[in-house]
Structure formats: C-alpha cells, structure tokens
Records
---
Amino acid sequence: MHPLAARALRTGLASARRVFDTADRSDGKPFSEPDILRPHVDSRRFGWVHYGVMIPDLPEPHRFFSMMSLIGATGSLAFDNDDALVAPPRRNASVVAGTAASHPAHVGNYAIGDDFVSSPDGSLVRFGDDLTLTGRYPHYELVGRLGEVDVALTLTNTGTVSWFFRSPVYKHFGLLTEYAGTFTHGRTSVSTEGLCSFEYGAMPSPYLARSTPLPPAAKAPLDQFVYQIVDLDPDTQILLSRYGIGGAPFMTTAILRTREGAGRRFADVDFEVLEVRPDPEPTPYGVPMPVPQRTRFLVRDDSGRPWLDLEADMDTPFTYGLGTGFVTGFAFSATWRGETISGRGYCEYIDRRGG
C-alpha cells in the first residue's frame, strides 16, 4: 500500500473508532453479551469468528498454553494463511494449539461441515479429532491431543470482560477465566490451576461475498500484530497489544483486569523491540519473518508516570500457525507500581511489514 494511502486509512480508522467503538466505555462493566458466543458458520452478518484460550504461565516443561482459532478467513494480510486453506476461505477453520513441550505444537486446517463440526449455539466446537471445546458461558471443557501433549481443562468464565473492539460490526473481547486441568507429556502429568484468557471475536469479511482468496494487495493492510498476556499477581492480569497498518503503528493498548471485576485501560502505552533474533523464522509461504528476542511495553498512568515497565525475553521456540505468524512464551522482568516483579508470559507475534 502506498504510504499516503496507508496514512489516510489509519486516520480514517482512528476517526471511525472514536465514533463507533465503545470498548473504552465498557471497562469495569460486567459481561452482558453471552449469546454472541457462537461459531456463526452460516451467518450472513459475520464472516469470521475467533475462539481463543491462552494461559500465560504454566509449570515446566509447558510454560504456556495457546488455543488460537479462526473459523472463516479474515481478509487481512496478517491473518490470512491462503497457502494452508483446505476449503474456500469462508468455509475454512484453522487452529494453532499447544504448549512449549508440544513444539512445534499442533497446527491444523479443517473444512467446515466436514472435519470441523460445531453446534449453532456454540456448545460444541470441534477441530477434527485434535481439539474439542464444549459448554456454554460460563462453563466450558477443552480437551485435545496436541503433538505429544494431552490437554484436559475445565474453564470457568468470570464476569470480568476486556473489550478490544466493541461496535455494531466488530466485537472482540477477552473474558478473565479460571482454569483447572491436566497437561500430560510422555508419562508425566502436571495438574495446575490459575487464570487464563478466554477470547472471542466476530466480524464481517470480504468472503461473505467472495469464494476465492483476495490477492495480497487487496487485503486489509494489518501488517503488524503483537499481543502479550501476563499475570501480574495471582488475581491480576494485563493484556498488552500493538497493531500496525501499512507499515506504521496504529494502536498500542494495555488493559488491566482482576478477579474482583475491576477493569482499567491505559491511554499512554509504548512498545518497542529491543533485540531481534539473528535468524528470521521460516514460514510456509516463503517469506522469513524477523522475530524479537527481547521486547518492552511501557505503560504510564494518567499523570505520565511509569506504571508498568515490562521487558520480555523470548526464551521459548516460536510456533508457526497464528495466521501468518507465531506464538511463543517468554520470561519477563518488570517494574510494576514501583515494585520489581518477574514471571512468565504468553506472546503472539506477526510482522508482515516486509511482505
């Protein structure tokens, strides 16, 4: 995309978001839209749906857990993996799922109505024989065999919701969720419990009216996506993200939530890659992707003082399959409200600025 056109698009999207997106007005309010939690495979309104379950901190050797799925293709540069389609874009379901122990984890594509099966009410979402999500808000079961790791989780959504986008046409949110379950690798099982994020998104796409993949130049120019999840303490989780459009930053966010239902969104957030790994990660579409070794999110409070300064060291292999990018885990060190903390986190990373 030409730089002037990309700049105009970013300006237009920012203006539209200020008018139509009510995400920032929803902080601290309880979740009120459980009926949307459906796969919508035959919808004329939604062209793609996203289900996600992310655990940022697990015992060794697992470190993190990710289930990141798209039911229907998005029409965006970052998330459309056209080379992997097994059905027309609207009828293709994809998932990347696993832990550090299952690297390179499980990556699969499924034809909706064939090896991808779901119920209209969302009580069943099944990716072949690999991964199955059952239940309805607020109680779910997630089971699967992902590479060499068997997963069995019970998920209990709290009423604490963090909205990434909330408009009549695009809804995307994460529910703070309590999990308990078992991860089995070889002959060793680890039982654990804690906080995770249960995520859902739904939006129209060009594939409501088109049955073949868009050429890259016609896709929405979302070309950078960074997402990190960290538990700051046993009751507090923060979601950190960066979105880039047309080669430049569009939006950088930090959203805090707690078991007690408190929510807070920070307006002053910076992101930077402190160190890039020497070797780019190979991709199935033939364009190696530069990935970070170390990143930094700096979050300031309303007075401009540092509230959270978090450096992440990507000490876990990158697993391909998040759209055209990767998932991984990291070790972090941070200063939070003047105190030093450390731990583990979960990361999603896509950088298509180079093509």
---
Amino acid sequence: MVRCNFCGATGSAHVFSLKGFDLVRCAGCSLTFIANPPQQHELADIYSVGASNYHSELLDTGSAQAQRMRLVAAEHMEFSRPFVGDGQLVDVGCSVGHFLELAAQAGVEARGIEYCKETAQHAATHTGLPVERGSIHDSALAPESCATITMFDVIEHVPDPQADLQAAWRLLKPGGCLILSTPNIDGLFPRASRPFARPLGYWPHPEPPHHLYQFSLATLAGKLEELGFVVEKVSHRHIALDYTFGTWRTLIRSPKRLAYAMVFAPLARLGPLLSMGDWFYLAARKPADAPAEAIAA
C-alpha cells in the first residue's frame, strides 16, 4: 500500500515499469510517482558526480551538455524576469550556477542550494556566489527572507515534494514568488505515447529512477493553490528533442528509435501550441497577507 504525497490516498493505477521501478498514478489527485523509489543512500549515489555522466558533463564547461544548460538558463531567466522581486533570490537545485550568474548579472541578490556536493562546490567557485550544499530543508536561510525562490526541474526529483513546497512558502516573504519548471505528464507527447509504452518497453518521458514524481499542470497548480499560493502564469514548452529522443547520431544507428522519433517528435513540438507541452513553467505568488505557514498541514 503506497500513500500519495499530495492527497494521502492509497489507491493507484499502474502506469509503467522500467529498471525495476513501478510508476503509478494516484486515484485521488492524479499525482504520478514511483511506488518503490530508491532509498536515500541510493539517491545520493545517483546524484554524485562519480555515478552520473550527466553531472560530470556539467562540470566540463566545454561539453555539449554544459552548453545546452547555458541556453536553458537563459530560457529560465526570460520567464522569471517579470516575477523576480526586490531582495534575495534563491535558486534551489542551482546545478553549476548558470542561472545564478545570469540573475547576478541582472543585478539580483542571488544565491543557490545544490544537492550534489561536487556540483555545489563548482557553482560556488565559478560564480563567486553563496551556494549551500543540500536540500531546501538543510538551508540556514531565515523564514520570510526570500523575495524569489526558483526550482527549475527540481520538484520531480525530491522525495517529498509537498514538504519542499511548504518549505518554500516559509522562506518566501509575503508577496514573494515561487517559480518552477517540471515535465508535464499530461503533455501531448506523453499522452499519445503512453499506450505504446508497455508493449515497447520504452517511454522516454518518465525517466525513473531520477524522476520520482511526474506532475500534470492541474495536479501541481492545484496543490500550490491548496497551500495558499496564487498561480500567476503558466508557460508550456517542450523538452529538447535530442534530450527526449536522442541525437541524430544515435538515431541513425537504431531504426526503431528513429521510427519512434519520427512519429512522436512532431507531437512534442506541437504540444506547447495546444497548451499541452511536455514541460512547463509556473509562477506562483505568496499573498501579501499570507500566514507564516502554508495552509495545508
């Protein structure tokens, strides 16, 4: 029996299994999550530089992955700019600090929090900005000390997303803004490709075990509003096609993956135009007259 992190319901429907991990969807609020997630020490190993090519490539400033993340950071900044308030901005899951650098260049008082020890050290060294190692729960920041909190592609990775949202509420000043991005399991591509996931044994969207949770816009926005936030803007996007489907070099070596990409990549591109992107940004504000603690316990 697995209890949903958002609504506490225990009923769920099986969605997909990969690498021994079972993805299920809550019957109560539709939150999708891994029913048998990795243990805490396993997560620490997953996100260590030694165990992850992804993190190692990020630390290599000349790698294609690092270059891509600079472009993504610029996209983050474009969306965030209207919502960044006067005062301290904290980027939770700041990675190597590309977004922090852009925020600081824009005159924002920026600092970061990063779970991976080596990546946090790299971010602090190369940006010259304060970066705490750990999660939002490990931070020494004072309550109501932040004008803006950003969580780009973070909420799907954490063991207890509701607790992280509540922690963000406590750290935000009244009137402060929480800005998130995360994959959208109800996007056009994930929806269209899901019926083929089991027979093919392949569904690139969920990415277990790294993504412990998969959110729809309705589920995440509903939880934020339940906590007391006011959702101000949503922007639908698509995940980089080479990230989801593979590079051309990879695809031409695999006719099956190439065929899959030819069928579904156009839907991934089309999704944002229909407000069904497979990734979205969301900006939510803590009301000026808000209590210190989030409404939901």
